[in-house]
Amino acid sequence: MEKKVRKYKTQSFRCKEIQIPLTRKELKNLFNYRIPCLCCGYEMLHPDIYMHLMERKELGGKASDVIKILEPFENIMHPVERQVFNMFKTMSVKYPDKNLKELLEMKKDIHELALVKIQSSIFNKVSFYRRILPKKMARQLRKLMIKTNDIIFDPEPHKPFSRRIFIHKLKNIIKNLENRKIKEEIIEIARRLPRSSDEVCAFVVKNTRKRPEVIALNLIHPSIGTFEHLQPKSLNGMNNSLNFALECAYCNNSRHHYPISVQIEENPYMPENAQKQTDKLINLSKKEICKKAYIENLKNVLFILSSQQIDLDITKLYEM
Ligand SMILES: [Zn+2]
């Protein structure tokens, strides 16, 4: 019991020492001002607006009604989601009474075939490296490819294929490979595997398994504004605005606990997009909606955690 009290005291003492630039409420308020995502640069949606959308029961119903509800959000949809939304719009003219799941089911076969074609051509390219890898690695790669082919050629796989897990396993197999050039080549090829965020066919295949209201929300979900832990929580990253960046749900979820340098590998335009967001925040700081200290801290933390790849220019912050 005594120990607990002491712990509490140290914590509250620490909080007084460090100045936290923005409260959670102030940080969340920024989503009212069309902030671009730190990583992908797309404009984000205020999370409360999404919460209201989640309550709309009509999303599970007729496509024609769902389209009317989602139309105001078309401009913040990410590109693939917008393409799928337009596909729904076209289909709902012919089948206004079907729900979104029924519409996707009509398209599933053709998109699944397209997806498997893209995936298998990439897997072939990866498999080629069995010829040049050291024996043990080549054997492990063969095993992985057999398992993967089993999943993608099975029309009803036990577990759907996961791009993320595949790349993770592949990286593990070649982690001790001395030839860096070949190592990078293999990973670069694997990264070309489509994600539901960059190929309509991958979106359709992934979402046909979902309920109609979930499909509707998934068109919007990637765009929700979130707090990204710059230093991951798993590495003792702080849970306040000294360690929070504003990122869309898609980028936040796809980073997992990986370091920012890996996030930049997957998103080469991240340094430019981070600058775009910072310029917007600087503008808001002139209107006293964002605090200078938050932007200064963001610059420092990003510089360190990205191994200097993100070097924000904040000189405008000091111009009158
Ligand atoms: Zn993003």
Please explain how this structure is put together.
The protein has helices at residues 2-17, 24-29, 47-54, 63-70, 79-94, 100-127, 135-153, 163-173, 180-191, 200-207, 212-220, 249-255, 260-266, 270-286, 292-305, and strands at 225-229, 244-248. The chain is mostly helical and 320 residues long. It folds into 2 domains: 2-44 and 224-318, no CATH class; 48-221, no CATH class. It has a two-stranded antiparallel ribbon. Helix 6 packs antiparallel against helix 7 (135-153), helix 6 crosses helix 10 and helix 8 (163-173) runs antiparallel to helix 9 (180-191). The protein is flat and about 60 Å long. It starts with a helix and ends in a 15-residue tail after the last helix. Bound molecules: zinc ion. Residues 37, 39-40, 42, 247-248, 250-251 line the site of zinc ion.
Give a short overview:
The protein has 320 residues and is mainly alpha-helical.
Search tags:
two-stranded antiparallel sheet, 2 domains, 320 residues, binds zinc ion, disordered N terminus, mainly alpha, single chain
Unique ligands: zinc ion
What structural class do helix, strand and pairing data support? Answer: mainly alpha
Query: Regions with pLDDT < 50 over 5+ consecutive residues?
Result: 1-16
Strand order of the largest sheet: 1-2
Separate helix tally: 15
Mean pLDDT: 91
Helix-strand pattern: HHHHHHHHHHHEEHHHH
Share of β-strand residues? under 5%
